[in-house]
Amino acid sequence: MNAIGLRVGEKLTIGKVIVRICFLMIFFIASQILLSMYGTHVISGYLSLHTILETFTVVVASLVFSIGWNAYSRGIPSNILLISCAFLGVGILDFSHMLSYTGMPDFITASGPNKSIIFWLAARSLAAVTLLTVAIRPWRPSLIAHTRYLLLASVLVLIFFLYWLFLFHNDILPVFFIPGQGLTTFKIQFEYAIIAINLFTALVLLLHMRHPLPFNAAGLLGVVCTMALSEFFFTRYVDFADVYNLMGHVFKIVSYLFLYFAIFVETIEHPYNILLQSQNQLKATLDAIPDALFEIGENGHIYSYRAAANKLWSNSSSNFVGKLIDTILSPTAVEILLSSIHEAERNGHSQGKQIELSLPEGMRFFELSVSRKAVVEGQKLRFIVLMHDISQRVEAEQKIHYMAFYDFLTDLPNRRLLTNRLQQALASSASSGREGALLYIDLDNFKTLNDTLGHDIGDLLLKQVAKRLEFCVRESGTVARLGGDEFIVMLEGLSERSIDAAKQAEAVGKKIIAELNQPYWLTGQEYNSSVSIGILMFCSNTLTSDDLLRQADIAMYQAKNAGRNTLRFFDPKMQDTINARAILENELRKALENHQFYLCFQIQVDSLYSALGAEALIRWHHPERGLISPTQFIPLAEETGLILPIGQWVLETACAQIKSWQQDALTKDLVLAVNVSAKQFHQTEFVSDVITIIQRHAINPMLLKLELTESMLLENIEGTIVTMNILKEVGVRFSLDDFGTGYSSLQYLKRLPFDQIKIDQSFVHDLVLNKSDREIVRTIIGMVTSLNLNVIAEGVETEEQHQLLKQMGCFHYQGYLFGRPMPIKQFESALQNPSYVG
Q1: Which of 177, 494, 587, 649 has the highest Cβ tally under 10 A?
Q2: How many beta carbons lie within 10 A of that of residue 118, not counting itself?
Q3: What confidence tens digit (pLDDT) does each residue in 519-562 have?
Q4: Quick check: helix, strand or coil at residue 592?
Q5: 3-class state of residue 313 by DSSP
Q6: What is the pLDDT of residues 597-626, one digit of tens each?
Q7: Is 77 a residue whose pLDDT tops 90?
Q8: Where are the beta strands (DSSP E) in 582-732?
Q9: 243-264 vs 46-70: helix axis angle to the nearest 10?
Q10: Torsions phi, psi of 169, nearest 5?
Q11: Which pLDDT value is given to residue 786?
Q12: Residue 821 DSSP SS3
């Protein structure tokens, strides 16, 4: 078998078939030898034996038809139907052959040798041609629903025609048998032709077996080989009742049995084995899944449960089955689960909802995936609920959030969280009309304590100061540590009258001074400290949070200059600033009309210092003031709505630049990142605008990367997902800018089709010296990598930062180390002559 290149998967089946064929060949050869030595003999009572043999073959042919016909589906190969329908015709012809046999009562017309033989040859020809057809014809599923009826009708029409010809026009047919002489030459040659067809079919099947086959080729090989042996006997008999005729019928029965088992395997046993394998594979897969899997009714009734050993609950499945889900889950978890079930009932599935459970090993978090199960008519709806343990992911998310927004030493909010809360306080104050206050607190002479008693003692003092500040403020405000010995207390909801609000803030400040003036016990030693406090009042303030903190800091230094251990208010003489802002807004409106904006490009590289692309950064060159920083005019553009036409201009200019780069082999693959504002992104026509610009400039959309900030994810998250997915289908890429500085949740992040996450430069700046920032960056890289997203670090200015990021698994960079933002001509010149080195 190896000599003809048979595939390994067929060897066992082919081996069984060939063993049987070999036995038949031995029997065939032995019978030929014996018959040639002793001669053939007429068998007495052969008519009854012949009737039994033919009845058996007719029954087998009928079974072949029944199995193939009733196993029909659109997935079954059409060749099975062809064999089934054809052998129905073969069975009918064999039945007619039996009824027409010499000695049988007349069957419509007189029975006799030639009538019997013509039905016999018709049956053998139909069988041989059918098997040759299915050997050559591709084994593909039927695509037409009524294929089997067409095949059956075709066979029955053929049988009807043959009956009409054989019974009523047999005078035009040749003679096949002459009593006393035996078979005619025509009949013998016809039999040899059928043998040749069967042997050719066997050859075709053997050639096919050199490649993987979708059908039981070995079984069909046994069919055609035994049919060929059977036909040989029917070239030798002289009398209808001699041994040659009997042997031919015996081999014919064997060939029919081969066919029956081939069809049985193909239509029943083989699909059953595939189903069994599928069930075993499913069981193995379910056993390998560490998650809990429930089958639940719409009322919460548990029908089945399975989970890996030592996972989730120690209960066996029998302890859950038959119970209601509210007996094993908390009320809150049940409410969320039933909500997911109702969503799956409407939509077919539900994903993403999370529940929290108290288990023996502690609090665990799970993500629910619910699918509606297909049910038979009249059966109640059931749902498959997969509870995936995401505790590690949630813990990592919480860890990132803590490291990004809280101070390690005191557990107080850090500057980032304070800035966010200050922005919220400003918005709340503007809407309510109530004033707020910032108390900037600095410990007097703290450096002396650190230098004399050591940093450990200094840290101990800072912890106690933090607790005393929280005691003074309690729930009326926020206490944060900026760093070193500087703290901020933010008060909200003060009086609407400025004078009363100032008195309230002053009262809190004096309480803080009194509390912090109390002695401290530091490792058994008493220590006294004083503080200087600067107070800034705010309401509907137009300043940024950084500006407010800066003014509070100025007020604190005024307190220090006043002798320390006191407090001072910032003098709010801001009219000059307000006037300057109004002038800047007016000039900003003219800047776009007068073409005063231009783009600078800062290169983005990989770990091999190869240019990947650039970030487009807008610059404003004022005819009188010169270069104006984006930090001055971008916030103003956001507030006034001018960011929309400015953002449109940036997109147009960026796409035009991509088009220009596509003409140059050096720049044709560069990806250009463009910052998009929240207001611009949430415009209803944003998607159509982007697509129109891409089509107008005829650029590859994959070379355009839109950078979104974390704050944009909080506003209409579902709308954001839809917008991103539409542009993603077009080919536009997305990058999440300043990651780690906002409130983005990994739960939402995994639903958003980002290609890249950009680590904020505030983490990169102190990466070499600050252990906390290193841990934050390492954690971010790990989490982003687990989401199969690309990560890039911005603000890389030193080789030390570059090497640390590389060691942590970040291989894309942007920063002064590789290139400053520069105009297009200078940027393209730098690409041709890169000055950065590794």
Answers
A1: 494
A2: 23
A3: 998 888 889 999 999 999 888 666 788 889 988 988 898 888 88
A4: helix
A5: coil
A6: 999 999 999 988 899 999 999 999 999 889
A7: no
A8: 597-606, 611-622, 626-628, 671-675, 704-709
A9: 20
A10: -140, 40
A11: 86
A12: coil
Q: Spell 595-609 as b/e; 16+ CB within 10 A means b.
A: ebbebbbbbbbeeee
What is the pLDDT at residue 605?
95
Q: What's the CA gap between 336 and 179, in Å, rounded?
A: 90
For 386, list phi and psi in degrees, rounded to 5. -105, 125
pTM of the model: 0.40
Q: What percent of the chain has pLDDT over 90?
A: 28
Give the pLDDT of residue 836. 56
CA pair distance 583, 684, nearest whole angstrom: 31
**How far, in Å, CA of 812 to CA of 612, rounded?**
8
Nearest to 114 by CA among 170, 169, 194: 170
What pLDDT band is residue 817 in, cutting at 50, 70 and 90?
Answer: very high
Distance CA 543, CA 411 (A): 28
**Measured distance CA(652)–CA(662) in Å, rounded:** 16
Angle CA(209)–CA(212)–CA(214) in degrees, nearest 5? 100
Q: How many CA atoms lie within 13 A of 56 on its CB side?
A: 14
H or E, element range at 653 = helix 643-661
Residues paired with 531 in a beta bridge: 443
Express each pLDDT in 379-415 by its tens digit.
778 888 888 888 788 888 778 878 888 998 999 999 9
Total Cβ atoms within 10 A of residue 181: 8
DSSP 43: P
Q: Which residue has the tokens 């009538």?
A: 115
Q: Which helix (DSSP H) or strand (DSSP E) does residue 282 occupy?
A: helix 270-288
For residues 158 and 89, the answer to whether their CB atoms sit within 8 Å is yes
What is residue 584's predicted lDDT score, i.e. its pLDDT?
Answer: 85
Measured from the Cβ of residue 745, the count of other Cβ atoms closer than 10 Å reads: 16
> What DSSP designation does 822 have?
B
Lowest mean pLDDT among 39-43, 339-343, 817-821: 39-43
- The upper half-sphere exposure of residue 626, i.e. CA atoms within 13 Å in the direction of its Cβ, equals 0
Give the pair of three-digit tokens for residue 798. Answer: 């030193």
How many whole angstroms separate alpha carbon 677 and alpha carbon 634? 10
> Both tokens of residue 135?
């050997």
DSSP H or E stretch at residue 62: helix 46-70
Neighbour-count burial for 56-71, b at 16+ CB within 10 Å, e otherwise: bbbebbebbbebbbeb
Whether residue 602 contacts residue 617, with contact meaning beta carbons closer than 8 Å, is answered with yes
Q: Give dist(CA 589, CA 417) in Å, integer.
A: 34
Q: What b-and-e string marks burial along 85-97, b requiring 16 or more CB atoms within 10 Å of the CB?
A: bbbbbbbbbbbbb
What is the spatial distance between Cα 321 and Cα 704, in angstroms, rounded to a whole number?
Answer: 54
Tokens 């060749």 belong to which residue? 79
